[in-house]
């Protein structure tokens, strides 16, 4: 078989050597009939969407028809002009797994997303995280339209921008049953379910069976469906926590501390992160700190103190304790403060240091005053403490009560 020089030369532009080019022509003789300029033009079009030489060789080796298929031209133009940010690796997978004739519908379907409010600059990101062939090639346009209309009830388009994989799901077998379950859990309130989904779109990725298994666990703890839904509204990731590794042991600890189902519900509404934190790297260290300052093992006070520290790091908590100790406070002092105002152990240590410096250095007050009113440390330094102090010291002098200075409402203060 004699292959023309221009044909081989055109494929050598793909960095195929002469033997590879000849083998490709022998397997696909139609390539030899194509004008070299047409092949070069297609190569340039592929390169314009980010396909590098190595990727191009792989694509052509698996689907040589992409060098000739007329359907591919409009798609590549659309990808170049509209799909900014689409990863070349994602595009390579699409081109190697999909016949060019099935790519013709992508532009229409993606355009439909834009017509329904998906920002154009987000399309590349969205396509990077969906099964493009399934969603935009194989799915009929009317089915995609149905999904869009359904999802518009749930903070569209932000929902799919944050969680593009939702578009992979089947409307009737997956999306609708999951939404209905969450709405039923919320007492039949679809608006409440929509609020929950808006907080964590990934919830729609969980099966109904998954939700039911978590519901049964919390029912066994003594919580009602309504209570679980209220916890989920505060912390939607409650459904992603392992029942065996984390939920079971965490709940058992609270029970050992004397908490009943009502206490556990109130605890989780205030400190839902407790169920997700690592015991070894987080909770155990905080328990050590709390016991060190005087909390007793297996007590409700210890459990509530653990809950109050869930939003701070072990390092910050250690620095907070060190700050208090550096100002002459004892473990008993810190224990007393944390019982009055549990949040005191989770405040940022740098912010606390500035407030204590202002209290002692500028206001000329004794550090012991924070033992009486530890909530002082929770107010904003510039917006509340400094501002109110400057206003009132001209009228009442320096000895005014910290409680009266800070805790009264804005209306009553002014």
From TrEMBL:
<keyword id="KW-0804">Transcription</keyword>
<dbReference type="GO" id="GO:0003676">
    <property type="term" value="F:nucleic acid binding"/>
</dbReference>
<comment type="similarity">
    <text>Belongs to the mTERF family.</text>
</comment>
<dbReference type="InterPro" id="IPR038538">
    <property type="entry name" value="MTERF_sf"/>
</dbReference>
<keyword id="KW-0805">Transcription regulation</keyword>
<dbReference type="Pfam" id="PF02536">
    <property type="entry name" value="mTERF"/>
</dbReference>
<keyword id="KW-0806">Transcription termination</keyword>
<protein>
    <submittedName>
        <fullName>mTERF</fullName>
    </submittedName>
</protein>
<dbReference type="GO" id="GO:0006353">
    <property type="term" value="P:DNA-templated transcription termination"/>
</dbReference>
<keyword id="KW-0809">Transit peptide</keyword>
<dbReference type="InterPro" id="IPR003690">
    <property type="entry name" value="MTERF"/>
</dbReference>
């Amino acid at each position: 078989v004699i292959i023309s020089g221009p044909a081989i030369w055109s494929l050598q532009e793909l960095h195929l050597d002469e033997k590879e080019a000849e083998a490709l022509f022998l397997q696909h003789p139609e390539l030899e009939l194509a004008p070299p300029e047409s092949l070069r033009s297609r190569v340039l079009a592929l390169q314009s969407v980010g396909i590098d030489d190595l990727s191009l060789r792989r694509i052509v080796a698996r689907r040589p028809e992409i060098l000739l298929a007329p359907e591919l031209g409009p798609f590549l133009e659309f990808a170049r002009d509209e799909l900014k940010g689409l990863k070349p690796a994602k595009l390579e997978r699409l081109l190697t797994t999909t016949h060019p004739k099935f790519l013709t519908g992508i532009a229409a379907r993606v355009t439909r997303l834009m017509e329904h409010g998906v920002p154009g600059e987000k399309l590349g990101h969205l396509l990077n995280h969906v099964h493009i062939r399934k969603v935009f090639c194989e799915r009929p346009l009317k089915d995609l339209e149905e999904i869009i209309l359904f999802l518009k009830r749930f903070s569209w388009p932000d929902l799919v921008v944050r969680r593009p994989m939702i578009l992979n799901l089947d409307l009737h077998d997956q999306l609708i049953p999951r939404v209905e379950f969450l709405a039923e859990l919320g007492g039949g309130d679809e608006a409440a379910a929509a609020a929950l989904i808006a907080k964590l779109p990934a919830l729609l990725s969980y099966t109904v069976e998954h939700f039911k298994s978590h519901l049964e666990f919390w029912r066994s703890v003594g919580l009602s469906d309504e209570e679980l839904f209220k916890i989920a509204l505060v912390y939607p990731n409650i459904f992603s926590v392992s029942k065996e590794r984390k939920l079971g042991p965490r709940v058992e600890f609270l029970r050992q501390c004397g908490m009943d189902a009502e206490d556990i519900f109130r605890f989780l509404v205030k400190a839902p992160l407790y169920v997700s934190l690592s015991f070894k790297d987080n909770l155990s260290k905080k328990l050590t700190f709390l016991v060190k300052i005087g909390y007793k093992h297996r007590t409700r006070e210890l459990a509530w103190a653990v809950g109050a520290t869930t939003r701070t790091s072990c390092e910050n908590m250690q620095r907070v304790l060190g700050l208090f100790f550096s100002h002459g406070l004892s473990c008993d002092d810190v224990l007393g403060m944390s019982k009055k105002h549990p949040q005191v152990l989770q405040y940022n240590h740098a912010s606390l240091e500035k407030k204590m410096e202002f209290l002692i250095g500028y206001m000329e007050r004794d550090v012991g005053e924070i033992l009486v009113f530890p909530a002082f440390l929770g107010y904003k330094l510039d917006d509340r403490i400094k501002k109110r102090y400057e206003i009132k010291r001209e009228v009442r002098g320096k000895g005014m009560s910290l409680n009266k200075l800070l805790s009264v409402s804005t209306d009553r203060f002014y």
